[in-house]
Amino acid sequence: MNIKELLLEIIKDKDYTPLTVKEFMAKMDIEKSMEKEFKNIIDTLLKENEIRLTSKNKIVALTKKEKSLVGKIEGNSRGFGFFVSSDEDMENVFITHEKLHGAMNNDTVRIKILEEKKEDRKAEGEVVEILERSDDPIVGTFYKSKNFGFVEADDRRFFDDIHVNKECINNANTNDKVVVKVYSYPKNKSPEGEIIEVLGRKDERKVDIFSIVSEYRIPRDFSKETHRDVLEIEKEVSTKDKYNRKDFTKLFTVTIDGIDSKDFDDAISIEKDNEDYILYVHIADVSHYVKENTPIDKDAYERGNSTYLYDVVIPMLPKELSNGICSLNPGVDRLSVTVKMKINKNGNVIENEFYRSVINSNYRLVYRDVNKYLDENDESVYEDKTLKDNLDLFNELYKILRKMRTKRGSIDFNNPESEVILDNDGDVIDIKKAHRGSGNRLIEEFMLVANETVATTFSYLDFPFIYRIHEKPDKSKLDDFKNVLNLFGYNIKGNELYPKDFQNILKEVEGKKEEPLINTIMLRTMQKAKYSADNVGHFGLSTKFYTHFTSPIRRYPDLIVHRLLKLFMDNRLTKVNQRSLEKKIEVASEHLSTTERRSESCERDVEDLQKCKFMKKHIGDKFVGIISSITSFGIFVELDNTVEGLFMYKFSEDNFNFDEFKYSVFNTDKEIEYHIGMEVSIEVIGVDFEKRKIDFMME
After folding, report:
1. pTM of the model
2. What was the pLDDT predicted at 91?
3. Please, is 187 exposed, middle or buried when counting C-beta atoms within 10 Å of its C-beta (0-12, 13-18, 19+)?
4. Residue 415 phi, psi (nearest 5)
5. Whether pLDDT at 474 is above 80
6. 555 has a pLDDT exceeding 80
7. Distance between CA atoms of residues 698 and 690, nearest Å
8. pLDDT band at 116 (very low <50, low <70, confident <90, very high)
9. Rounded-to-integer distance, Cα 273 and Cα 338, Å
10. d(Cα 71, Cα 526) in Å, to the nearest integer?
11. pLDDT surpasses 80 at 444
């Protein structure tokens, strides 16, 4: 037990008498030299909402009730705010502008309840202490005057303009998009800040996307040290690099990716051994070039992954690596880590081997053409008979693996992703559902079996490892999901649902008008997959062992797995300090799960922005859509092109009654009941670029 854990245990003991920091140090016989470290532990426990200091600076543990009154402020553009408790069971508390007492969006505060919740209104509260100011940089538009300037935040939850003194303007001009760091919160005055980056003119191309990237604090530039080290990177694989590697350069190998892809981190080969299939999954050997604790490695870890924003990419690695020496480009030798798997006719991996290898890809294939060949039987796409034979063999194995995975209960969501099509100037010219053909699915299936094979190997070694886990759905969300299913006439029995149950539901709704909706709601019911040193299995894939190994160019967890796999191949696992490694993986898992969520949120916001740009051209146009969600204030409608908008019935001239249990709303004037899954006609009436929302009027 460390000092922090011991300290907390003492404070929570029922016989504990409150002590000051100095009294605690004396009681625990802590030396003077340790005073700074001890005070840091106290500060950490205060931030973690475990303790508080009394008016006499005595340390006491927070009660459950007190803990629920510590949380974050969520601002509103109209000046008031909501308190979001760290206790997930506590509902948000309304706080007027005056009762915020200077607290801003995302600040950590302690509040008191002034008025308890009533049937038709939230509880009201007052901020009694600002525990920690948000240190998030703020993105906004700068306006300059003679001796000072101010920034209007893009995120209007930060409702006060930020005053910028003349010496802190840093060459920004009126209508520039900027990133500002707040350094002072004067009482009864606007917060004061310094401009730390000028993103460009407000209406300049890509500046709106860079603004969103900056909001999420995703680094766009690599460090000076990384730029320096990049100059030393080889352009070609040397003879020395090939030493002691398995030579697969004569093995027929292809990559299959999107037409716009530039970084190819996986390639595949296949052979037949009587009734068995020999599948080779070759993955770029990024760890050969990116060594631990080097500047490139530190930058990659900080980013955690690449972020893809259509014509803007924030790569995890410099392009000299991601698009160059690490990318499995056709016709050139490349270093890789290969998983060779013998798979029987039932889809089970009966043998596997791992290699440090050298490959030379024969073809760079794209999904569009592979899908034409496999799904449309278009023989004219390719002329090479060897290529066609290999694609046919790939397709055979893909169907076997898919059948096996379906049989064990793996859930295959059929939620179509959005395909946003840009012209050469970056303008949105179309939005439609992305097509996933056999080419997309077979690569996905081969990567799944490779990831599972690696994870299974390490699980039996009982060695520290980074797993990709997916926990069981939360019971309350399951109950909500069952209620929605009941509305459509699907009766689900039992208190617990297993992957097979979800799979059966998807089969039952397949082809019906409610299919997209059930897919979406089911996805929301699921927990979020994440990285963990503690393996609890993967619910969605219905497998005990899973990891990420196949994308080390764009995901840092895969790079960790490659390093561990090399230790295994070299028989060096016994020389590793397992306790230290386990702690390191625990920290990395939490960080990398966070960076993944950060990128996903950024990508989603940019997608919403692009949809707003597209639908602005259609203001006044009418469409038919499906009701995807109903709330106490409005009806969300999703169009066939995946664009979702909101009809705010709360501000309509008609009267509406919302039924939260039936997920429906009744227009009492027109006597029409609207429910989830219902087809409706809408008119596009507005677009809000700041909130990235689209407004509909329902007919």
Report:
1. 0.87
2. 86
3. exposed
4. -80, 115
5. yes
6. yes
7. 23
8. confident
9. 19
10. 25
11. yes
CA pair distance 368, 189, nearest whole angstrom: 58
- Paired strand residues for 330: 361
Sign of CA dihedral 154, 159, 161, 163: negative
- Do strands 672-675 and 192-201 pair parallel, antiparallel, or not at all (unpaired)? unpaired
- The beta-strand segments (E) located in 557-642 are 622-630, 635-639
Amino acid at 277: Y
Our measurement of the distance from residue 590's CA atom to the centroid of its chain's CA atoms, rounded to an integer in Å, reads 13
Which amino acid is located at 484 in the chain? Answer: V
Per DSSP, helices labelled H in 110-156 are none
Identify which of 44, 33, 32 has the alpha carbon closest to the alpha carbon of residue 7: 44
Cα–Cα dist 591/301, whole Å: 9
DSSP-assigned states of every residue in 439-458? HHHHHHHHHHHHHHHHHHHH
334 near 323, Cβ under 8 Å? no
CA distances from 17 to 9, 11, 60 (A): 13, 8, 9
- Tens digit of each residue's pLDDT (9 = 90 or more) over 401-415: 999 999 999 998 877
Per the listing, tokens 């950060």 go with 598
Give the C-alpha separation, 40 to 621, whole Å: 59
| Residue type, position 286, single letter | V
Q: How far apart are CA 339 and CA 341, in angstroms?
A: 6
* The pair of three-digit structure tokens given for residue 441, joined into one six-digit string: 């699915």
Look-up of token digits 């960076």: 595
- Tell me how far CA of residue 345 lies from CA of 274, 448, 677, in angstroms: 10, 17, 41
